[in-house]
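Please review this one:
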Amino acid sequence: MENKIPIFDKVTPSLLEAMPYQYAWKDINVCIETQEFTCLCPWTGHPDFAYIVINYIPDKNVIELKSLKMYLQSYRMVGMVHESVVNSILGDLVKVVKPKEMSIDIEFGIRGGITTTVSAQYFKK
């Protein structure tokens, strides 16, 4: 039986899809959370596990959640430092969704007794 689960070896922003926000005149906050994020430490190759919280105020689009899940899974085999991960995700989501505001907080699991939380924000000009 062949494997139907895609395996990614690079971050794949082309997986992200936006949908029209039907209430564009109304500001709301969308909060998306997942504990199922992993990437690789670029020095050791060991997995880094993280909890991600994405908050945004949509303008004309919202993110399609299955596409977001697949996009986040594309980090699984990619070696990247924590600060680059948060900036990469924020940049890719802003390009696709074009929100009024967006923030991303990523809490990376404990490693060597240290937990790291990295945050980034975007505000439409």
About this structure: The longest helix spans residues 82-97. The mean pLDDT is 94.
